[in-house]
Amino acid sequence: MTDKHTIETRFEQTLFASRWLIAPMYLGLAVSLAMLTVIFLRDLVYYVPQVLTMTSEKAILVVLTLIDLTLAANLLLIVLFSGYENFVSKLDIRDGGDRPAWMGTVDFSGLKMKLIASIVAISAIHLLKRFMEIGESVADAKFGETELFWLTVIHLTFVVSGVLMALMDWLSANSGKH
Fold first, then answer.
1. pTM summary value
2. Contact (Cβ atoms closer than 8 angstroms) between residue 68 and residue 122
3. Where are the domains of the chain?
């Protein structure tokens, strides 16, 4: 019986240690965050010299693009920190109180909600940008009625998915069975 218990214990320890196989993926997400930062800075450097000559509509589109990149970076950071802390190991960072309040408190359910909320926001900004470009010949050639229809359908799909996920979490929390 002891051999069976030892085999089971080692097997479970191996399974538990396998969570570290995902750690390189989180490092890859950190590299992706750096990539988004470079793209944000590249766009900023490109558009700043044009600020005195751009139209207000163009300025709004530029700002929406920068917000879009920032939301994607926020999403990436939430997935990076919350995912690592939920699935690999707690971050033992002693940095004098600079740690964001949400770190260590976002469980898998909260992570899903933040993820879908970010996706809906990014989708909404993308759709808003396309709507603002209606009437521009270059944009109309690229995004016709069919493309705008599908962008709207996809956005509404994200919204409905988010509402259904929130409903499922609410039902699960209030069912008494956890």
1. 0.71
2. yes
3. 1-95, 107-178
